[in-house]
Write a structure and sequence with these properties.
Radius of gyration: 19 Å
CATH topology: Rossmann fold
Order of helices and strands: EHEEEHHEEHEEHEEHEEHEEHHH
Bound molecules: nicotinamide-adenine-dinucleotide
CATH architecture: 3-Layer(aba) Sandwich
Mean pLDDT: 96
Number of domains: 1
CATH class: Alpha Beta
Largest sheet: 7 strands, parallel
Shape: globular
Strand content: 15-25%
Number of helices: 10
């Protein structure tokens, strides 16, 4: 088996590779990434996680060549401008990378005889959804360029699937947990870091929003399942990827982090404007289809794993919300220092 992963050099990619090595030891793995966050490593001394791949290609998905798909059995499409703040600032690049290139590479993959295409979508497609848990059949309500890019990709991918080219869209909950390229712009990772370096968790909202979470290691397992073990069901299918037990209200999440780590105060911003990103999601379809590949971890395990990683790399930046491990900060810095142009192409 040969799997090509686009966007493999971010937060999820290196963890996905570990999961592929675990579940499918003889798989050939090729990565394709333009390396925006390549230096943002946690492990000391730094070892590039890409040493675990068979082949790494440095390139932009906007200039992808079909020769990279020769002998590939499955494509996992992770490449993205990967959250709302970046999507708002770099809207054109977000549409190109997250949406147009997904379609173009899927078309090329189909033509090259690839059998499975897996797309990393997001539960943010549901927008504001507090009244009831959203299922895959619920109406989507994308509120941002990032969420719209995911909805448009899903819709247009549907037309490409057939019995020789299966497409799976996984609408992931917000990720959390340890990775060689840790991100701190994800709610649980933010809370653990704040508690550890500042002894407090300052919630930027009033704490009421609902947010489903998934451990990044479970995300890797879900992607393995979709690319190699989803043998039944429609040629095109969508799954909410997460677990029903991991729908949390942000304030409860903060208190759980506080009680696992100890010595932490939680402060809520009572004056915050209502957060439009609040949604509860139903993950039953995924649990039924993926079986043992569905999430199994406890939240306490994930919190402890992030704490241990931060301790291991002696992370002590109290203003971590401005640090290199915040994707928007790092990307903006690359633009300001004229390494990237305004379309996020390397200069
Ligand atoms: N992290 C989450 O909470 C979460 C939740 C739901 C869905 N997702 C999706 O999962 C995927 C991976 O997320 P992540 O957290 O690893 O994001 P990330 O920002 O850490 O990594 C994205 C990777 O894509 C690469 N990339 C971006 N533009 C590219 C281009 N033009 N050409 C080649 N490579 C390019 C980047 O260099 C980076 O390595 C994304 O599609 C994201 O939308 C993530």
């Amino acid at each position: 088996m040969h799997i090509l992963i686009t966007g493999n050099m971010g937060y999820v990619g290196p963890v996905l590779v570990q999961q592929i090595r675990h579940h499918l030891p003889n798989t050939k793995i090729t990565g394709f990434d333009n390396g925006y966050f390549a230096p943002c490593l946690t492990n000391q001394p730094a070892v590039m996680p890409e040493t675990q791949l068979d082949h790494q290609i440095f390139g932009d998905v906007r200039q992808f060549e079909s020769e990279h798909l020769k002998d590939v059995d499955a494509v996992i499409y992770l490449a993205a401008i990967s959250n709302d703040p970046m999507g708002n600032l770099y809207e054109k690049a977000t549409d190109e990378i997250n949406h147009l290139c997904t379609l173009e590479i899927a078309r090329q993959a189909k033509q090259a005889g690839v059998k499975n295409f897996v797309f990393a979508s997001s539960c943010s497609v549901y927008g504001l959804a507090e009244d009831s848990s959203r299922t895959e059949n619920s109406k989507v309500n994308p509120l941002t360029p990032y969420a719209r890019s995911k909805v448009q990709s899903e819709r247009e991918l549907a037309a490409l699937a057939d019995s020789d080219f299966r497409i799976t869209c996984l609408r992931f909950a917000t990720a959390c947990g340890p990775s060689p390229r840790l991100r701190l712009d994800l709610v649980l990772n933010d809370f653990v870091t704040d508690a550890l370096v500042n002894g407090t968790i300052s919630i930027l909202s009033d704490g009421s929003p609902w947010r489903p979470l998934i451990d990044v290691r479970d995300m890797g397992t879900a992607l393995v399942w979709a690319s190699a073990f989803r043998n039944e069901g429609p040629n095109f299918d969508i799954f909410n990827a997460g677990s029903n037990e991991w729908n949390f209200q942000v304030k409860d999440l903060a208190h759980t982090v506080g009680s696992v780590l100890g010595n932490t105060t939680v402060s809520i911003n009572q004056d915050a404007a209502p957060d439009k990103r609040s949604y509860q999601v139903d993950f039953s379809k995924f649990a039924a289809a993926a079986g043992s590949f569905a999430p199994q971890r406890s939240l306490e395990d994930t919190i402890s794993a992030v704490r241990d990683l931060l301790l291991h790399c002696h992370f002590q930046e109290s203003d971590f919300r401005e640090s290199d491990w915040i994707r928007l900060c790092y990307l903006r810095q690359l633009v300001q220092t004229k390494h990237l142009d305004s379309e996020l192409k390397w200069i």
